[in-house]
Amino acid sequence: MTGRNPGRPDRTNLTTSRGAALYIGALLGPGLLLLPGLAAAEAGPASILAWLALLGLSGLFAAVFSALGRRFPQAGGVIGYVTAGLGRPAGQAAGWSFLIGVIAGAPIVCLIGAGYVTDLIGGGRLATSVAAALLLLAVLVLAAIGLRASTGVQLVLVGLLITLVTVAVAGSASSVTTANWTPFAPHGWPSVGRAATTLMLSFIGWEAVAPLTTRFARPARQLPRVIAIALATTSALYLGLAVVTIGVLGPASATSVPLAALLGRAVGTAGPAVAAVAAVLLTMGTVNAYVTGAEAMARQLLGRDAVAERGSAHASGFLAAITAASVALITLYGFRLASVASLVIVPTALFLAVYLGCMLTAVRVFGGPVRRIAVTAALAVVVMLAYCGWALAIPAIVALAARASARRGQARGVAHLPRVAEPAPSCSPL
């Protein structure tokens, strides 16, 4: 390759182990601290079927996004992929939907961490809301002074999450009882679809690592291994956690702090405290990554690549926008105007809309096995979108606004925005 300095190690190539770590880091997030409980509340023991279905769908996503990364190596992410297949208005809609989904996910992550804190020290919804607001404030202060969590820090946090889940699963597995699996579908079979839609946020992340496909020295050999390692690792963690959440906790599995309950069984009275500390660390690290990634994507969508050169006004305004959105959602939760489940459906609908756009792009630009895989994945996404109900209005409004903006730009003769590479988040959006 031209321009490579033989005297230095090639920092563009990824080893198989490093690539697998990045893929796993992109898929796992603090949603694992909450979503198993929400899924159990939706469908009871039958939520295990939702986990199994989504693990299969995750494999389809991996194949499609890997193909998109190889076909459009300069596209840089969902905006470029959807633009290449469906046109600029659709690409802009995908970008804004993803950005709004990330911003909407930040207060949910704060509520997850706060829930584990108040579970330990006591307090109701208002106390959880106050704790969430304090966590958000701490992260925004760090962002305002320019402190950003590195990819290495994010991978350490993901390692912490893997350790906690492994200890919880291994330590409580002996307490699984068959009685907790009956009745299997207490809320009816349609509840499995609702649980799958809720759990979808744990399977977002393949789009973030798609651009990495070109960084492997031997992608044809390395990429299948990396995907196999990532799928095997996440499958073991997800299924293990789902099985023990249902089999150990039974009816009590419908909780917002399932990992605290499992760690209590695994390591004793220190379990909830360990879970609370870990939840706070994961919350701060993840929201910090949200702010960094969302700010970069906003610059891309607005065509403001020189924000830093224009002073701190744009950065301050962006942090203010995140603060306003987060405070509004946390307040709705605190005053019982919205539940965590109803808040989760907002980013879910937005991310599903983005994934649908990417799958349709693959249907349009590929043939053979990739097209068939993309068609299957697109149909599955459509089914889950049908469970989003009122939240479907949000991506619809974003799409209409993007189309109207594109028409105004064409009327003024505005050129297409450049396809600036999106930064790959080092952890799942939730």
CATH topology: Amino acid/polyamine transporter I
**Gyration radius from CA atoms, angstroms:** 21 Å
Helix content: over 70%
Structural class: mainly alpha
Could you name the CATH class? Mainly Alpha
What number of domains? 1
Count of DSSP H/I helices? 16
| Major sheet summary line | none
The ordered string of helix (H) and strand (E) elements is HHHHHHHHHHHHHHHH
Mean pLDDT: 85
Assign the CATH architecture.
Up-down Bundle
Strand content: under 5%
Number of strands: 0
Name the CATH superfamily classification: Amino acid/polyamine transporter I
- Gap between N and C termini: 37 Å
Query: What would you call the shape?
Result: globular
Residue runs with pLDDT of under 50 for 5 or more positions? 1-11, 305-311, 414-426
Features:
430 residues; disordered N terminus; globular; Amino acid/polyamine transporter I; mainly alpha; 16 helices
Describe the protein's architecture and organization.
The protein has 430 residues and is mainly α. It has one domain: Up-down Bundle (Amino acid/polyamine transporter I). Helix content is 71%, strand content 0%. It has 16 helices and no strands. α3 (47-71) packs across α15 (368-386) and α5 (88-121) packs antiparallel against α16 (393-412). The protein is globular, with a radius of gyration of 21 Å. The relative contact order is 0.21.
